[in-house]
Structure formats: C-alpha cells, structure tokens
Amino acid sequence: MKKENGAQERVEQKTGMTETEAPAIEGVEVSSDYRGIYPEKPTVQAAEDAEKETGSTESGTSNSPSGNSTGGGTRKGKSRKRNRSKNAGNQGKADTEKDLTVQEKPKAVTEAEPDPEPDPERDDFLPEEETSTGDELLTTTPIASLDAEEIARAARRRPRRKRKYGIFVGALVLVLALVGVGFLVTSIGTQVYRVLTDDSQLRAYDTFLTPVVMQDPEPFEDIADASGEMILTSSVWRAIMVNGTEYNEYDDLGRTIVPLVDVTDACHELFGPDCDIRPEDAPTDSFYEFDEEDNTFHVTPYSSQSSFIPYTESSKKSGASTVLRVGYVSASDEWRTDASGEVQSPEPVKYMEYVLQSDAQTGMEYITAIRVG
After folding, report:
1. Residue 312, H or E segment
2. Could you tell me if residue 171 is inside a domain?
3. Number of CB atoms found within 10 A of residue 312's CB
4. Would 9 be classed as within a structural domain?
5. Phi, psi dihedral angles at 43 (to 5 degrees)
6. Considering the domain boundaries, does residue 10 fall inside one?
7. Which of 1, 21, 134, 261 is 20 to 30 A from 37 in CA distance terms?
8. Domain range holding 289?
C-alpha cells in the first residue's frame, strides 16, 4: 500500500494533477500510476470496440425525434474522440506491419571488400604502361564465358618483358661481337702468317754470307783448315761492302785505298776473333794489292755480278750453333735478273751448310765450319 501511495505522489509531482484529474480516453488503456505521462498506444481491439460503439450511438440518435443543442454537441465531441481512437488504432496497426516488414526484409548486401593490394613483385615485372595479354583475358572476360581451351591457353601464357629498342640493342651487340671476333681472328691470322712467311732474318744471313759465298770456298770443319786466300779475299770484300761509302782516298791508278785495320775487323766478323789474315796470302793477279809501306790495300773497282750469291732457305739450332742451309744462286738465274719481281724465288745450283757460333763478347755470329749440303 505504501508503494502505491509513493508512486502516486511521484506522478502528481511530475504532472501536477491527481489520478482523478487525468483525462480518460475512451478505448485507451492507461496505467493508473502513469496516466498522462506514458500513454500506451491504442490496440487494434480497442479501435474496433470504439467503432462499434460509435455505430450504435449514431443509430440511437437517428431514431430519436428531436434533440437539443447540448445533446448534439456531446455527440460530436464523442465522435471526434472515437475518430481519434480509430486513427490511433490504424496508426498502431501500420506501425506493427512496418516493423514486421523491416524484420522480414533481407539484410542489405554488405559493401564489397576492397581489392587486395597488388603484389609488388608482379607489378614490378611489367612496366606501368604494359600489361600481359593473359592478364587482360582473365580480368576482362568472365570466367563462365571462357571455354576450357581459352582458359588453358591463358594459363600457358607467360608475361613477356618488353623493352624499347631491345631488338636494336641486341643486334648492335651482336654486330660488335662479330666485328671483335673477326678482328681478333684476322690479327691472329696475320701474325701467324708473318711468323710463317717472315724471312727477314734469312735475308740478313744472305747479306752476311755474300763475301764468302762469292769465293765458293771448299768445305772445312775448322777455320784453321780453311784457305788463307779465301779468308783474305772474303775479308776485303766485307770491308768494302760495309764501309765503302767512307773510302774517299785513291792512288795514282784510281784504286780505292782500304786500311788494313778495316780488313782485319772484317775477318773477325766473318770467321771469329781467333782468325787472323796474312797479307802474303793475296794472289798476284787479284783485284787488290797490299802496300806494306802504308799497311793499306789498294782495291780495283770490281763487279760481283759474275759470282755466286747466297739464298738462305732455312736455319735451325744445333746445341750452341746455328746451322744454315744456303743455296748458291748463279749469275744466270732469272731471279737475279728479274726487275719486275714476278719471280718469287731463285733456283740454286747447289746447297751448302754453314755453321755459325756467337761471339761471347759482342754476341755476333761468325762462321766456324762449311759443309756440303
């Protein structure tokens, strides 16, 4: 009982009116404690009951012969109240149906999940402006519309990296590589050819052996067994060939004066430091004559065109010695008389072997033996 009185007092404090003073709405159920504060919505049943009562009241009124103004006003007020109750009932019914509709409505489609971030390795594989044909096929064409063959073809495709000027750069590199290889092969071939065909050293031997070959010496194994006249004559020729332009002194007969020391040096160059010349070995009918007073040789101008000249065909090492195979070319050979150079090599009439050794002091080679080739 105390609880009910306390609730009533709180209602009176909030609303400022008692339970009996709260307006009663016909057809509306209101709590005795909270009337006027939290009115409940009229139910559907209450709206129907109110409608029935309105219909019975109107019927009773129409049967009465007359009515005063006070009765008419009362009926109009009650009619307005009933209409409000009806509208409230209809509104409640509509709200109920709306709630049911909202509950039965399928859940809205959730927002599409954002696309996953692209794989950096995949993005870096192709330039931004280029895409793979296989990717375009898979992304632009629905999977359902692709047949098995198209799907297999797209799976087999691989993205190809394309670079601008790729073909041009590749072709340029290939051309440069071929040019380099060609240049290298040509250089190696030229060097090999020069080594195989270079006869400059052999031709230098020809110049060195010419004064001796002109004498057509007899073979010997030791310089002590060699002919003294051959040694002296070869030495005079060597001195004239090497220093001929320096000799500008002549005797009364117009012969060139050659110092003895030059002939001695030429002898050492040809036959080694242990070989010495003997002026008395000079022949009486030779083109040169020795003057004992001046120690000079008086040399008459003489042509060597009628003598043999050497043509060294090969050289080989034999221990500390060098063995040369020397051909003797006669004066009548076409190679000697051919001025056009059409004849590539001579045809020697015979061959001899010249054995050379090196001087320990000068490093120059000299003749130590002559053998039959």
Report:
1. strand 309-318
2. no
3. 21
4. yes
5. -85, 170
6. yes
7. 1
8. 225-303
Q: Are 87 and 40 in contact (CB under 8 A)?
A: no
Neighbour-count burial of 258, counting CB atoms closer than 10 A to its CB (0-12 exposed, 13-18 middle, 19+ buried): buried
Instruction: Indicate the angle between helix axes 228-243 and 200-213, nearest 10 degrees.
Output: 130
Instruction: From 38, 55, 72, give the residue that closes a domain.
Output: 55
Among 277, 303, 329, the domain-final residue is 303
Q: Please report whether residue 21 resides in a domain.
A: yes
**pLDDT tens digits, 132-179:** 555 554 455 555 555 677 777 766 665 555 556 678 888 888 899 999
Count of CA atoms in the C-beta half-sphere (13 A) of 34 = 6
Q: How many domains does the chain have?
A: 2
pTM tops 0.70, yes or no: no
345-358: b or e for each residue (b if 16 or more CB lie within 10 Å)? Answer: ebebeeebebbbbe
Q: Which residues lie across from 327 on neighbouring strands? A: 311, 351
34 phi and psi angles, rounded to 5 deg: -125, 25
Give CA–CA dist 67/313, Å, rounded.
168
The segments of the chain whose pLDDT lies below 50 read 1-4, 7, 11-12, 14-15, 18-35, 57-74, 76, 100-112, 121-126, 137-138
Comparing C-alpha atoms, which of 220, 207, 174, 181 is closest to residue 353? 220
CB–CB of 312/324 below 8 Å? yes
Render pLDDT for 329-355 as a digit per residue (tens, 0 to 9): 999 998 888 877 788 889 999 999 999
Q: Which amino acid is at 156?
A: R
